[in-house]
Design the sequence.
């Protein structure tokens, strides 16, 4: 591709609340600029992952370069479609760093929702040009007037700046393209500057190694150039580069202002840091500030189903975290489940999607333990403050039907099913967004599970004092269902310190596996005894109790799995 003047380049993201129509608008923009054919089959083309297609949501930001003629001039538009769900907001904030403007999509029927507000502030704080786009005006209950008032009131953007469209029917989408060219400023930087690029995303290709998505902030780069990664100070030779249209489209060079991909022989996932700066080996530049690391909110253990799969799972997790750098990974081990990892996620959906991607994209099968949230423990005997419930912080009316309320919640109260309960209580009308408000003192207790008096280390949990009894009872009941009867009675107890708060009992039973073998068929008897011995291998002995490994999994695993 020939050099493109920087003033004819526009880099923008599409941001919105979930399901307000980002991916549908991206399809229309791709069609209108000829990047994809206009056919019924081309739906949500930027949602390439199997998990995105199955769930109908975007989880990964995707880039597409489009060519657009306006007033006799040719423009290069770099569009980044971003996820809407709060669990993937890290994708949004990273993508914004490659852009100068955003299209903020708002559903003409639903109006401003929780992630509309959250995403608006991400763009506002990054000082980007914001173009409000009111989508779905074809719907019977669409009320664009009302949504324009909300936008004016909540974001202080004049209603005249809103563009009303139907992404589904293509109505007025041309106006959106014109607004992008006319309102969003071109990127700064010039082709004459030294080469400087920001790595804002990357993925691992089996054959080529790391494929990094870059935004070129200055200068130019071509195949064969020697470039340096500021993070590791390592030099690489550029093997391949090009635009994403949205498929990879190799070119000879990338210039200042462009967004594209680069392959430079990075074979190890640790070499491609998101937020890294690349520069020419003879022209060092000051590194870009990079990204603030994501703060995980939910933690879960991940273990291979069979320990022989540990190395394969390790490499799968490494490669997937390259593509999703908001996941944190720490090695961990459990007596029951063997060697594994403790992973941190931004939310429960994020955890589920990561797990699904491991299975679908890396063919890995994993055991996921119950999710927990981080606690800070202060080791002191007294002075524990009484546990807090939600505390209301403020309440703002967006219009006469909609209210935005801010609460301070303990994270473990909202992490598992709060969203579902809220949705069903409000018949789907309420939406929810959250951010970390730091640690607060609470009345928490360490709860042990005992089998015939012996504590089972991996089942120890932190519970709120008010929930201790119900949670201890549930764990004892689930264990009772999973441990087979043995030749003696087994007491399953939940205890806080020395105080037992719940108990289940498994009655003694003698399993005579030979009972069905009448007569003297010795080979059959041997077979059955062998089978029984094999079964024992899959058990872990705690005190004198044999516990099947499955029992840990069923107690630790999320209830709905
Ligand atoms: N009636 C109508 N439906 C639309 C319009 N635009 C999008 N939709 C529908 O709204 C639903 C959500 O659209 P998407 O484009 O997947 O929304 P999204 O914002 O990309 O969703 P996430 O990426 O998951 O946050 C789909 O069923 C679309 O067909 C529109 O202009 N009119």
Sequence:
């Amino acid at each position: 591709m020939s050099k493109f003047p920087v003033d004819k380049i526009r880099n923008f993201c599409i941001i919105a609340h979930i399901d307000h129509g980002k991916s549908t608008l991206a399809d229309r923009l791709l069609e209108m600029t000829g990047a994809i054919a206009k056919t019924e089959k081309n739906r949500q083309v930027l949602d390439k992952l199997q998990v995105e297609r199955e769930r109908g949501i975007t989880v990964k930001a995707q880039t597409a370069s489009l060519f657009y003629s306006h007033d006799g001039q040719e423009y290069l538009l770099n569009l980044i479609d971003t996820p809407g769900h709060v669990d993937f907001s890290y994708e949004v904030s990273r993508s914004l760093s490659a852009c100068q403007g955003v299209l903020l999509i708002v559903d003409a029927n639903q109006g401003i929702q929780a992630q509309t507000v959250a995403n608006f502030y991400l763009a506002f704080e990054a000082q980007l040009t914001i173009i409000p786009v009111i989508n779905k005006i074809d719907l019977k209950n669409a009320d664009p007037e009302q949504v324009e008032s909300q936008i004016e009131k909540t974001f202080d953007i004049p209603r005249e700046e809103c563009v009303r469209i139907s992404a589904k029917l293509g109505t007025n989408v041309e106006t959106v393209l014109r607004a992008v060219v006319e309102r969003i400023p071109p990127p700064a930087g010039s082709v004459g500057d030294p080469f400087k690029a920001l790595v804002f995303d990357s993925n691992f290709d089996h054959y080529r190694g790391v494929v990094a998505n870059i935004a070129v902030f200055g200068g130019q780069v071509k195949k064969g150039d020697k470039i340096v990664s500021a993070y590791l100070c390592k030099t690489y030779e550029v093997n391949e580069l090009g635009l994403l249209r949205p498929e990879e489209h190799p070119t000879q060079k990338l210039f200042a202002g462009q967004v594209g991909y680069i392959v430079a022989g990075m074979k190890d996932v640790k070499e491609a840091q998101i937020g890294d700066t690349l520069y020419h080996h003879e022209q060092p530049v000051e590194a870009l500030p990079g990204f603030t690391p994501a703060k995980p909110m939910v933690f879960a253990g991940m273990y291979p189903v069979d320990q022989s799969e540990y190395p394969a799972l390790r490499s799968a997790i490494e490669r997937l975290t390259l593509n999703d750098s908001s996941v944190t990974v720490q090695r961990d081990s459990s007596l029951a489940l063997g060697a594994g990892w403790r992973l941190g996620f931004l939310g429960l959906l994020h955890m589920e999607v990561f797990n699904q991607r491991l299975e679908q994209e890396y063919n890995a099968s994993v055991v996921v333990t119950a999710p927990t949230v981080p606690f800070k423990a202060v080791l002191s005997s007294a002075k524990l403050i009484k546990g807090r419930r939600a505390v209301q912080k403020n309440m703002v009316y967006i219009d006469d039907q909609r209210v935005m309320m801010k609460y301070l919640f303990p994270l473990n109260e909202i992490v598992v099913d709060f969203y579902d309960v809220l949705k069903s209580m409000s018949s789907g009308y309420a939406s929810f967004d959250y951010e970390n408000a730091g640690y607060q003192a609470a009345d928490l207790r360490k709860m042990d599970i005992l089998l015939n008096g012996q504590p089972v280390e991996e089942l120890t949990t932190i519970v709120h004092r008010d929930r201790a009894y119900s949670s201890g009872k549930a764990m004892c009941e689930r264990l009772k269902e999973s441990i087979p009867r043995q030749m003696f009675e087994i007491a399953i107890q939940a205890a806080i310190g020395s105080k037992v708060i719940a108990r289940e009992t498994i009655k003694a039973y003698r399993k005579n596996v030979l009972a069905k073998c009448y007569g003297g068929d010795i080979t059959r008897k041997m077979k059955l005894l062998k089978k029984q011995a094999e079964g024992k291998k899959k058990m872990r002995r705690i005190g004198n109790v044999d516990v099947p490994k499955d029992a840990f999994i069923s107690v630790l695993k999320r209830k709905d799995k």
